[in-house]
C-alpha cells in the first residue's frame, strides 16, 4: 500500500511540475502515472549504482551531487516515457527538486 501511495504522490508532483515549469510537459494523467512508475524504477535500480559510483564526488560536495543524480534520473525518465518531455538539464534539476519537495511534504503530513 505504501508503494501505491508513493506512486500517487509522485504522479501528482509531476503534474505540479508541468504547471510550474515550461521545460517539463506531460501529455496527460496516464502519461504522468507511467512517468512516475519509470522514475520510481530508475530511482530504485539505477540511483544506488550512480550514488555508489559517484560517492567520492558526493562526499567532496557534501551531498550536493545527489541533486545532479536526481536530475539525471528525471531527465532519463523524460527520454524513456513518450509524452513526458524534459527540455534541458536545468528543467530536470528544478523539476526533480519540486518532485522531491512535494513528496517530502506529503509524506510528512500523511505518514
Give structural notes:
It is a single chain. This protein has helices at residues 2-20, 29-53, 55-60, 65-80, 89-110; strands at residues 24-26, 84-86. The protein has one domain (2-110). The mean pLDDT is 95. It is mainly alpha-helical. The chain is built from 5 helices and 2 strands; from the N terminus they run αβαααβα. A two-stranded antiparallel sheet has the order 1-2.
Q: What is the helix/strand order?
A: HEHHHEH
Count every helix, treating DSSP H or I runs of 4 or more residues as helices.
Answer: 5
Span from first to last CA? 12 Å
* Approximate strand percentage: 5-15%
- Provide the residue-averaged pLDDT: 95
Total beta strand runs: 2
For the record, the count of structural domains works out to 1
Quick rundown:
The protein has 111 residues and is mainly alpha-helical. The chain has one domain (2-110).
Key traits:
mainly alpha; single chain; about 110 residues
Topology:
Elements (H helix, E strand, L loop, with lengths): L1 H19 L3 E3 L2 H25 L1 H6 L4 H16 L3 E3 L2 H22 L1
Antiparallel strand pairs: 1-2
